Fold this protein.
Amino acid sequence: MQLPSGKVGGGVIEQFLASVERRAYRMAYLATGSREDALDIVQDAMIKLVQKYASKDEAEWGPLFHRIMQSRIRDGYRRNKFRNGLRKLIGWGDEGDPMDNLPSAKRWQPEEQLQAETTMARLDVAIRRLPLRQQQAFLLRCWEGLNTAETAAAMGCSSGSVKTHYSRALKALRCHLEGQPL
Amino acid sequence: MSEDEQHHRFTEQLKARLDRTEAALDPATVAALRTARQEALTTPRRLGWKMPSAAFASLIFGAVLVNSLMVPSEPPVPMALFEDIALLSAEEEPEMYEDIDLILWLLEEEANSDLG
């Protein structure tokens, strides 16, 4: 699949990456809270997919990409947690709320935009409050629409664990967002 | 509305909201993702930082191992040396007491001569 020029042939894999990159970025961002970390995670996952699995059947790219992404997200989440812990330990200054870096929706009307951003931020906060495994199970099951077995494969755990994490995630989200407009 | 319907409605609302956040990504992030994709497609072979680090760590470990095997360890300090030190310090003690006795005797003699 690797051409002499270094480009992957066909452009099919590029179409695939273009179709998944935004959502992948959002998932990574929700886990790490950092734009740069999220972009790094997505790029790493893309590179790995292209270099190791481009020759595989197209139908396998989705599950493989999910698996790589979830693994990278776990690593990024741990690294971020360690960094924050170290920062607290050393007593470095707080860098502010990561929610301040939320992307804005510029094409909406001001009132709409304000309400949408508030609602988005609220949902982001609620998702980011979830433990990572619950967050992953929720995003893969609810947003990506994967079934339990596919989610388990992406997360590298059993179907039973996915069910537990997903159920707890929904319960927590319902609790956090109760009575608030979605 | 049944519990299942409520559950379905809730997850659909969340999904719609998440779709909206995806569509609302700022242009700078979208451009960064496009660049990341192009780089992923054109990167010939990336070793990453882990490979050189692992190789470097192995090299250092090997060097330390070889060094510890090749360089003979220093000979142990002979026990006789410690014994000599103990003896020397022990021999000094009676001399010190003799000196003190001598000084005391001289002082006493001096005092007696003054009285006498």
